Each structure stands twice: as structure tokens, then as C-alpha cells.
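Data card: per-record layout.
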Amino acid sequence: MGRFVALLYGVVAYVVFLAAFLYAIAFVGNVSMMQSIIGDVFALNSIDAGGASASLGTALLINIALLSIFAVQHSVMARPGFKEKWTKIVPEAVERSTYVLLASLALLLMFWQWRPMPDVVWSIGGIGATVLNTLFWVGWGLVLASTVLINHFDLFGLRQVFLNFKEQEYTDIGFRTPMFYKVVRHPIMLGFMIAFWAAPTMTQGHLAFALITTIYMLVGIQLEERDMVGVFGDTYRQYQKDVNMLIPIPKMGGGGDAPAVSTPEPMATVPEPMVAPEPVAAAPEPVAAAPEPIAEAPEPVAAEPESKVSGVDDPSAGPDVSGQEATATTPPESDAGMDDPSVPEPGVVLGADDDEDDSPTPATET
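The structure for this 366-residue chain is written out next.
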């Protein structure tokens, strides 16, 4: 399917949905506005007027079948497993538009084939009727406003086909809880329920419609929330704990508040035994004092060269020192072979030293 064809298909699907949505308002509210606009070309039914007549039992069975067609299509095609298989047949860009189109056609079929059951169950007049009529429009307004809050055009497939037409990758809008979604988890369903039950005159047909659709929505919510938990995990589980499903009353002492209060307390007491770093900080003191003996050790090393300077091993000091000390320690045998005429005179000195030390060891060491 080409990009332009997909865009056109999505627009047509949205227009059909819009027509079905407006028709639903007129159908449930017994509003003759649409009939006056279109004229007598099409016989437009309402929940309590028009349509073929039938006995109560037959009408109830036909109406249940019509509602079931919509319910099965609307729920089955919304499941992730079905979408995965369905997108192998239809392009992914028009998957949502196809879902919207088929759901709208199922609604139009129900409006067309609905069998009225006009017997009155209750009738309220005066201010009560005014309140109920007001709630009827509030309910439909809540439905429409809630779709806008979570991205109306993404919900009904226009965003998908438009991004495909621009050759841009589709990105999921993610999990958000704007405005009404902070009060109830399903404001769209709540709006439908208000609109369906706010009837000053409740007939058997209207009561059957409101009751069956309410049961369907309660079941559908369970299926939807299971899918939401599968996608968003603990984020949605926490949302379930913090926000009611349909009743717009804040939860008192909900499960989401308890962890925020109780959990930090034990965590704050755990670090107390870890004050032990004080001895760790004091331990480096002996390490800092240890270098002192290392600094004193070089003194004997520096003293050794002094003895070597006065010894024979130092070639630079030999000419000046060896003439005195060497003659005082060297025995006559080591100098007997030398032709120096001055040798006999130092021998007298050696003779004087021999009285103190007769050992020839210094000559051998030299």
C-alpha cells in the first residue's frame, strides 16, 4: 500500500468513526437532530424509536447479538497477540485505522438493526430530569476530552498514517496520566457509563443497552489493564495502587503511599554502625612517623667514605697520604725490593712500631 493511499485510508476511517460517534450521541439520547439534518433519505433509529418491531424476547436476543459483535471485534482486535498476527496481513501504518473503521462499522450496524423495547422502567421529571440531561452531555464531553488528553489522533489512527506519509518512524506516546487520568484510571469508560445511565426516562431497551455495555466495559478494563501491566510493569502496578479505576475519589492510605513513608526509616538507621571510620583515619599516624629512621640511616653511610679517603683504595688521595701512613704500617720486607734511597730512614720508625705490633698482617692486607 502506497503512502498516499494509506493516508487517504486513514482519513476515511476517521470520518466514518466521527459519523458513528455523533450518531451514538443521538442514538442513546433519543436526539432527532441528525434526522432533521439528513432528512428522510435515511431512516435513522434511536434507542427507543425506529427500527423493526419485535417481541420483547426476540428484541432482547437481537440486541444482545448486535452488542456482542461490537464487543468481540473491539476487544479481540485490541489485544497485542492479535495485532502481531494482524500486522502480517495489513500494513502496520494502517493497523489502527483498520481497527477504528471496523469498530465504527459494527456500531453503525447496531444502530441500524437495533430493536426498540419502549416499555418504561422509570421516568424522572423536574429538576431531576435537568440534572440527568446535564450529566448525559457531561459524560460525552468527558469521553471526547479524555481522548484529546492522551492524543486523540493517535488513538484513532490518523497520527500513524500521517507519520507514514512523511516517511517518519512511528514512536509510541508512552504511559502518561494527564488531568482526568490522575483521578481515575479510565475516564473514557467513566464518561460512557455516565452518558448511558443518565436518562430521565429509562426504557427496557435503554436499560438493557446500559447494563450490557457496562458489563462489557468492566470486562474490557480487566483485559486492558492486563496488557498495560505487561507493557509498563511496576509503573502501572503503582498507578493501580494510587488511582481508582472508575470512582473519582482519591484513595486514602493507598498501597502506593506506605512504602514512601516506612521504607526510608530502616535505611536511615543502617549507616550508624559505619561511624567506625575514626580509627581508620587515625591509623596513618604511625605511617607518617616511620620515615624518620629512614632519614637518619644515611649518616653511617656518609661516614664510610671518610675511612676510604684515608686508605690506599682512594687513588686521588694516595700520593699525599700513603707516604706517611703506609710507611708507618708497612714492614721492611715489602719495601726491601725498592731502590728508593730514603727507605732506611723510615725503617727506624718501623722498628719503633714493631715493639707494639709484631704481626705482619697489615702487609698481607695491603
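Known properties of this structure: The radius of gyration is 52 Å. The chain has 22 helices and two strands.

See the next section for split statistics.
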